[in-house]
Write a structure and sequence with these properties.
mainly alpha; two-stranded antiparallel sheet; 26 helices; about 0% strand
Length: about 500
């Protein structure tokens, strides 16, 4: 291992690779701030450029864009409630309310510190635990993944405020219904498309997020006639951009970071899970850890609720490199693009990568440490200026939100139908928001719905239609037992109240 670390350091600390880390982090941060654009699109566009470099330099550049985008994606989530990347959706739950309270600078600072800590801690995990964790990820089968998805859906209880459990469950059902639209992955039969070819591939996750958060927020502001800048018009710009945290805020942040780092990294290791699921699960776990007083602050500007998902999504980014580098299995959509790039270089990721190309594996890991420091230095000085976006009058802010939403969706598919679909979903979401229906359960169900169905059907095929798979494997049974305990505890608390 020592030899590998030295090889990685010598490669990562070369002038070219340090420059690539800086370029990747800066480009990723800017891309992450733009709603609708994500690291996957950016990396796909960069693949032709990386072919001019050696494989380690190309992968370092793409990795910098990846965690830079997740690092910077929190900005638009916090300031305008428009998640820059899917992994920062949960960041908006408490980040945006904090900004509305005149704490935009603090919210951005908490996000920056949490992202740095999550990325750094997970990079250390990646350094020491990659071989062992690759074996754990191989141990997961379809029944285990199904059980994990069911466990993820139980986190909906974390998003439901007092008296809103029924509404939250209704939004879960709606999210699952939307997730079934499109072509069935196993039989290739189209479902719920109404003979519209544009729905064959299903509904884009980014489209759902932009419609339910960004556009619906803008429409809600118009209907209610409230100006988001009005709440901060009495606050000076210097105060608005303050990044200093008091002792209590630092204490809350430091409590959330360790457990969210571990959870985020472990979720990232699982192929197909990724930063989005990690951030949701971390948010739900954190809410169950805190006391009743802090629990009531979730969704209203909680430090715990902001630090947890920001830590987890960055930790998951590092974790997703474990199956990519050690097994040749992409841990997320973005690492799937990286896998394609590596194959284009003539490099086959897998167990033999340690021996055949040790400089690639170790240089990527060591570059992450450098990248996290660069991102922190890059983001913190800009916070006082970025936070002033909140003071933009609604006459300018709302058109910008709508412009970025429409442009972002169109650039993803170059299909006018997606724009009309987004507007339609945004209108429905706006009316649901007016009647206090929570949006997070819908997003969570939409994310997990497809994976849940796919693994359920695969498990049923393996077991010849029997549901014995739910208890045949010890790992599946343990996860489901944990789920039942959580549901029972939530039901007990509801009855007790």
């Amino acid at each position: 291992m020592i030899e590998g670390i030295l090889i990685g350091l010598s490669t990562a600390l070369s002038f070219t690779n340090i420059l690539m880390v800086m370029v990747g982090c800066f480009a990723g941060t800017i891309i992450g701030m733009l709603p609708g654009l994500g690291p996957m699109t950016a990396i796909a566009l960069m693949i032709p450029i990386t072919y001019g470099f050696d494989p380690s330099t190309g992968l370092i550049l793409m990795a910098g864009v990846y965690y830079g985008a997740v690092f910077g994606g929190s900005t638009s989530s916090i300031l305008i409630n428009a998640p820059g990347v899917p992994g920062t959706v949960a960041t908006a739950f408490d980040g945006y309310p904090m900004a509305q309270q005149g704490k935009a600078g603090k919210a951005l600072a908490i996000a920056a510190y949490s992202s740095f800590a999550g990325g750094t801690i997970s990079a250390i995990f990646l350094l020491f635990a990659a071989p062992s964790l690759s074996k754990i990820s191989l141990a997961f089968r379809s029944p285990d993944y199904f059980a994990l998805m069911v466990l993820g859906l139980t986190a909906v209880s974390a998003f439901s405020s007092k008296g809103q459990f029924l509404k939250a469950m209704m939004m879960v059902i709606l999210g699952l219904m939307l997730a079934t639209v499109g072509q069935d992955s196993l039989s290739d039969i189209t479902r719920f498309t109404f003979n519209n070819m544009n729905l064959t591939d299903g509904i884009s996750f980014v489209l759902i997020v932009m419609a339910t958060f960004a556009m619906s927020e803008a429409l809600t502001i118009i209907l209610k006639g409230k100006d988001p800048s009005r709440a901060t018009e009495q606050i000076s710009l210097s105060e608005l951009g303050s990044i200093s945290l008091d002792k209590d805020e630092r204490s809350k942040m430091l409590k959330a970071i360790p457990r969210s780092s571990v959870l985020g990294f472990l979720i990232g290791v699982l192929p197909g899970a990724g930063a989005t699921i990690a951030s949701f699960l971390a948010y739900g776990m954190e809410r169950n850890y805190v006391n009743e007083e802090e629990k009531q602050k979730f969704g209203k500007g909680s430090v715990h609720g902001l630090a947890a998902p920001e830590t987890a999504n960055n930790a998951a980014c590092s974790g997703s490199f474990v199956p990519l580098l050690t097994l040749g299995i992409p841990g997320s959509g973005t690492t799937a693009v990286m896998l394609g790039a590596l194959l284009g270089f003539g490099i086959q990721p897998g167990p033999r990568l340690y021996m055949t190309n040790p400089e690639i594996f170790w240089s990527v890991i060591m570059s992450m440490y450098i990248g996290m420091v660069i991102l922190l230095i890059l983001n913190l000085p800009l916070i006082p200026y970025i936070a002033r976006v909140l003071a933009t009058p609604k006459n300018f802010l709302i058109p910008l939100i709508l412009f970025f939403s429409v442009t972002g969706i169109y650039l993803m598919s170059f299909n006018n139908f997606d724009i009309f679909l987004m507007i339609g979903i945004a209108v429905v979401a706006t009316f649901l928001r007016l009647y206090n229906f929570p949006m997070p359960p819908l997003i969570l169900a939409f994310v997990l719905g497809g994976l849940m169905e796919e693994n359920l059907r695969r498990s049923l095929l393996i077991s010849d239609g029997s549901f014995n798979f739910l208890w045949d494997r010890p790992l599946t049974a343990i996860i489901l037992a944990f789920t039942i305990i959580i549901i029972s505890w939530q039901a007990y608390k509801s009855l007790k109240k």
